[in-house]
Amino acid sequence: MKLILNGESRDAPELATVAELAAWLDLPAFGSAVELNGEIIRRADQAATHLKEGDRLEVVRLVGGG
Questions:
Q1: 24: enclosing H helix or E strand
Q2: Contact between 17 and 47 (Cβ < 8 Å)
Q3: How far is the C-alpha of 48 from the C-alpha of 61, rounded, in Å?
Q4: Per-residue model confidence as pLDDT tens digits over 5-64
Q5: Phi/psi at 64 (5° precision)
Q6: pLDDT value for 11
Q7: Cα(15)–Cα(26) distance, rounded to whole angstroms?
Q8: pTM for the model
């Protein structure tokens, strides 16, 4: 499956949902966010939000520091 991930075309395994994408990317349960085609997907909605070929995703991880 081809996805646009953080502005770059990526080949991904056949992922059905945003939750599967988060697991594939090994995103932490807290401190990360996923935007799908311009809409932030709440963690509670990720398992029910389906992906399709060519979707545009922005994934961010919060980083702490001083």
A1: helix 18-24
A2: yes
A3: 21
A4: 999 999 998 889 999 999 999 998 789 999 999 999 999 999 999 999 999 999 998 887
A5: -95, 160
A6: 93
A7: 14
A8: 0.86
Residue 44 CA to residue 7 CA, distance in Å, equals 25
Extract the runs of DSSP E, i.e. beta strands, from 1-66.
2-5, 8-11, 32-36, 39-41, 56-61
Question: With contact defined as beta carbons under 8 Å apart, do 29 and 44 qualify?
Answer: no
Integer Cα distance of 36 and 58 in angstroms: 7
Q: Phi then psi for 8, rounded to 5 degrees? A: -120, 140
Q: What are residue 40's phi and psi, to 5 degrees?
A: -70, 130
